[in-house]
Amino acid sequence: MKLIAEPWDASHDSNQLGNFPLDWAEWNGSYRDCVRKFIKGVPGMLPELGYRLTGSSDLFAGDGRTPFSSINFVTCHDGFTLNDLVSYERKHNEVNLEDNRDGVSDNNSLNYGYEGETFDPAIRELRKKILKTFLRS
User: Are 25 and 55 in contact, with CB atoms under 8 Å apart?
Assistant: First the structure.
């Protein structure tokens, strides 16, 4: 059995990545953010990407855990979907009457030339290639 944690401290609203007990694996939000920035083309991400792709030893190795302690992911139950990551540069939650205040605003996404769905074949093809890149990460 593998115990997996989403590393948020409910009482302090802070990220506890790397602080769970030895037998736990943790959703690695640092991996998510790094891969999104790298694919988006943010400069200087390559060194960090090396840590993230090899299990984030900078976060997990200090207490004897292995790369298997890191659950690498790009999207999950909250935030942008994979399609959103290549279709929107900002969130659009206006319809739910929260004045676009809900959800995070820093999704490290890129729309590749058009905000939202488009019929432009060049943009659609580029987005499809980027989606495949995310799936390979």
Answer: no
